[in-house]
Amino acid sequence: MSALKILVIPGSLRSGSLNAKLAAVLAHELAQSGADVTRISLGDFPLPIYDGDLQAKSGVPQHAVNLKRMIGTHHGVLVVTPEYNSSVPALVKNTIDWVSRVQDPHEARGQVFRERVFAIAAASGNRLGGTRALAALRLILSACHATVIPNQLALSFAEQAYDDMDHLKHQADIDTMRALVRQLIDHSQRMM
Asked: In angstroms, rounded to a whole number, what is the distance separating the alpha carbons of residues 136 and 104?
């Protein structure tokens, strides 16, 4: 049997991003749990703002096709999103919008979402930990017919959530992280 492959996607390009840091911690935990982990930057897949006229004129951008195919080589996907104005940032939404338009021969549009397990997480400097963004992201992915696991991680007061080695230091956060990782791995193994 091949190794379980998990793709980790931080939804922020900002230097020092709390969400990129959380994505790194989650990627490490997934690897420690036996998954073959790939962590990417959406900066390597730049996309224009989604526009149906642009798609009709020029087709789907190659970066969206490449990202869709990368998702397709993994059994599970973990998206770590910031929260902007109580929702997901444009970078995350726009990426999903474009990837959902990619249709390779012999498959239905959006099939890559239906055949993967998704997990979601967020980090925020406030006490809500990005929960509103997670609710929005769950809705968006569900609209794409993705299976989104019930467990999620909303890391509150993220600037103070780590020790000197960049590990989560609060037991409640560690327990929530491990539960998310276990559930993502369990559900992804069923999709293999």
From this structure: 27
| pLDDT per residue of the chain (192 residues) written in tens, 0 to 9 | 579 999 999 999 999 999 999 999 999 999 999 999 999 999 999 999 999 999 999 999 999 999 999 999 999 999 999 999 999 999 999 999 999 999 888 998 889 999 999 999 999 999 999 999 999 999 999 999 999 999 999 999 999 999 999 999 999 999 999 999 999 999 999 988
- Three-class secondary structure of residue 46 per DSSP: coil
Interatomic CA distance for residues 11 and 2, integer angstroms: 28
Residue 132 to residue 83: CA distance in whole angstroms: 7
Q: How many CB atoms lie within 10 A of CB 109?
A: 12
Going by C-beta distance under 8 Å and a sequence separation of 6 or more, which residues neighbour residue 39? 7, 8, 9, 10, 23, 24, 27
Q: In 3D, which of 94, 81, 89 has the Cα closest to residue 148?
A: 81
